[in-house]
Amino acid sequence: MKKVLLILFALSQSLSAQFTDINIVKEVKVKNKGVVVSAHPLASEAGTLILKMGGNAYDAIVATQYALAVVYPQAGNIGGGGFLVGVKNTGEKFTIDYRETAPNKASRDMYLDQNGNANTDLSQNGRLAAGVPGSVAGFFATLKYCKLPMEKLIQPAIDLAEKGFAITEQEANLLNSNKEDFKKHNRASVVFVTIKPWKSGDLLIQKELAETLKLIQKFGLKGFYEGKTAELLTSEMKKGNGIITLEDLKNYKVIERKPLEFDYKGNQIVSMSLPSSGGILLAQMLKMSGFENLEKYQQNSKEAVQIMVEAERRAFADRAEYMGDPDFIQDKTAYLISDEYLKNRWKSFSFKKASLSSEVGKIINQPKESTETTHISIIDKDGNAAAVTTTLNGLYGSKVVVSGAGFFLNNEMDDFSVKPGIPNMFGAVGGEANSIQPNKRMLSSMTPTIVLKNGKPYMVVGTPGGTTIPTSVYQSIVNVVDFKLNANISVNSPKFHHQWLPEMVAFEKNFPETTIADLEKLGYKAERWGQLGRTEMILIDEKGYIHAVADGRGDDSVAVE
């Protein structure tokens, strides 16, 4: 394995800027092989190296996530959290919740000034924005389903951090554009800040991160949540206004939750339950649009988009009012996805005009900001499937690197309702159900999903994108099930997004203008966005052929066992 990684490293040195171009694979169709689709070619390769060593999909998921923490620092992480949805070839379904939690010293009004106004800069940037990380605990919880020990699963990431890798043009641009934020929020120098601007082909070597990963390799879970790394993290808190303590880290717990399951046109959807809103939103949107027989229409036609936008509007209004950590609120999932409730919710739909968001919830003005998350889709040769979405929340999280440990801290506290009615960085409004409380998990939009046909995995899908995640996964499923599109077209065709508030629909820049114009005549307000999500999709046909597609919007890549 080390020999293979050394070859990859040598390629990164010798090929420089050509390295990413040569190794990115956007689409494969194979049989009796395992495949990994992730946001970075080296991370996908790390996953398939583990498959070749005899690991299963869950071994590969762990290895890929660790590798992403090295090669995709804007979202891959050990300082954040995420959700795993798994379906074993035995039919067993499970989910692992390793979402971050609020520190014990967190309080409902911790981001309000003396006048009671929300200071979202504090919830989005710097040490106070960080929740207690859950990723590493989640990786260890996944071992229950793995075949190989953690010592082997983490080794590819250690090699990549220690020896370095050639960054892509996209990565260089991101590091350069965030340089001033890195300098502002870190007292010590960090490897992500250089005197000369980063350029494609430059080597990024992360010695401190490699040592942190080695501590995990040597001491297990305690190598992160106790000992040197925990002390470095809490010391970082004291350099600013951070509140994570050694006790917070030691007491962090992963939760295995019951998957959210429902039927859509003969397909069994398996997704994430609360504290992710994604599964509920997906169920609501698919069921409501199902009332109008979407398959009658063309993809991205006026009628199809209107139906789907109105389903999104109603679902996101419910998100704001009802959803949060199920251990702290009354969980109304069964009610919210029931046919009776949704049929009543859909009564106000009309093809003649746009609904008003005030008809389905209380209007509150809000800004719109961008996001960064990352998703992995995997299936192994034995038919075990895994979908994982993980995040630091914003791009590079809180912008704080733990000095001496080399990893970014999340800014996940912003996913709470900082003040009921005040939008977070993605424009999502929340209410009391998602208010800040100590040890509580913040509401998420992540939607890792596996679709089953006749009890076997048919689709593995997910995407980054904050509040655009559920709507992108929704469109991906509809594209395949209703519009009969293949994986490539489904993933790469232009998407749209609506989230109840603000009162506008976002369209990707290459979306059909005729459809947008027709919708504007009905009262819809349109905005053009550069891109929506980066979907990783695997489709398995009835003959067992695996069609895997990495989104063309980024450096995402497929690797084959």
From TrEMBL:
GO terms for molecular function: glutathione hydrolase activity; leukotriene C4 gamma-glutamyl transferase activity. Pfam families: G_glu_transpept. The active site is at 373 (nucleophile). Its EC number is 2.3.2.2, 3.4.19.13. It catalyses: an S-substituted glutathione + H2O = an S-substituted L-cysteinylglycine + L-glutamate; an N-terminal (5-L-glutamyl)-[peptide] + an alpha-amino acid = 5-L-glutamyl amino acid + an N-terminal L-alpha-aminoacyl-[peptide]; glutathione + H2O = L-cysteinylglycine + L-glutamate. Pathway: Sulfur metabolism; glutathione metabolism. It comes from the Bacteria. Cleaved by autocatalysis into a large and a small subunit. Residues 1-19 form the signal peptide. L-glutamate binds at residues 99, 391-393, 415, 444-445, 466. One of its GO terms (biological process) is glutathione catabolic process. The keyword GTP-binding does not apply. Keywords: Acyltransferase, Glutathione biosynthesis, Hydrolase, Signal, Transferase, Zymogen. Belongs to the gamma-glutamyltransferase family. This enzyme consists of two polypeptide chains, which are synthesized in precursor form from a single polypeptide. This is Glutathione hydrolase proenzyme. It comes from Chryseobacterium aquaeductus. The gene is ggt.
